[in-house]
Each structure stands twice: as C-alpha cells, then as structure tokens.
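REVIEWER CHECKLIST
Item 1: Sequence provided? yes
Item 2: Single chain? yes
Item 3: Sequence as submitted:
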Amino acid sequence: MFISLLYNLAKIIIRLIIRINGGLEVKSKENVPLTGGVIIAANHISYLDPPIVGAVLPRRATFMARKGLFEMPILGWAIKQCAIPVDRQKTRPSTIKEAIRRLKAGEAVVLFPEGRRSETGELLEGKRGIGMLVSMSNVPVVPAFIIGSDQALPVDAKWLKRAKVTVVFGKPIYYTSIHKEAIPADLLHDDISKTIMNAIREMKNNYASNSR
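Item 4: Structure as written out by the authors:
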C-alpha cells in the first residue's frame, strides 16, 4: 500500500513538472489495455522517457532498467520498486525469465526496443530481446512514440529546458498477427522486433505529417 501511494504520488508530481515546464499531451491512451500482461514499447530520445511514460500510463508499470541505476543512493531504492535490472553487456536468462513471469502475472512492462537513447532523435534498430519476450510471453505490444522529451532534457543537459512533451500510444500488436509460420527462433525474434519498430516509425511519420 505504501509503495503504491508513493508510485501514484510520483506520477502526479512528474506530470505536474512536465506540464509547468512547457506542456504535456497524451494521445490515444485508450489503446493501452487496463488489465492483463502487456508490453509498452517506446522510442528513446531522453533520460526523461521512462518517468514520462510511467506517469502517463493509465496503469502501474514495471520497467526494464540498466543495473547501474539500482546502485544509486535513494534513487536506486525507488527504482527497485518498479523495475527489473538489465545488464546491457549481456542479457542474462534470469532477466528474461523475470520479465516473462511478470507479464504472465498480468503486469505492464515498459521497455525501449532500441536498447539505448538515440542522441540524434532518429530511430535506431530494435534489439532482438523484445522479440524474444513477445514470443515467449504471447502478450500484446503497445507501440508508443515520444516527442519533445529530447528538447526538455537534451543530451548532456543538467537542467530542464522549456519544451512541450507529447506521448502517443498506438494500437496493440498481437503476437498471432506477427507469427504467421514456423521459422527459426532468432529470425522470428528479429521479425517481431522489426514489426514493432516499424509501427513506431509509422507513428513518427504520421505525427510529422499531421504537424505540417
């Protein structure tokens, strides 16, 4: 109960800060299932992305975060309450198993398929890990596109800069719509990852077209 109260309070504070700092807009939040296991897959352009996505989701989120963050004073304790540690050098089987366990238990897991922050704002190639999670958990994936967080906290910036942040949630992608035929696991995982990144890319292109 105490952790849940802290989590909800943090969401309110984060939303308030972003709104005051330049504005916060959330689109198509109804695409996020309110129950059951689901993966939220977003582009990654700023260190603000994880807290922003967590703050605007209509349900509690579990994150996959690099293990070094868990060792930070105070912040590390908070991250342990809502995240799974990930070794960027080598993903351990225990990490995948824990993520799958949580997904099958009905949790919403937020991750960034590119594996790291894009310093240019351009989409990077998706990692195979998300394809593995989808194929082994058989849960839907909601693609998400974040705009403006890289302006609010640019690369190497120490303080927030005034900028509007927008988060768009796409329609869920279901494993059965990707897995059409039997293919080797590594190719399947790559295919799923590409499908998800293509969905995010399409959202980016649509947003750019509508902004003109």
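Item 5: Key structural point noted by reviewer: The longest strand covers residues 141-147.
Item 6: Recommendation: ____
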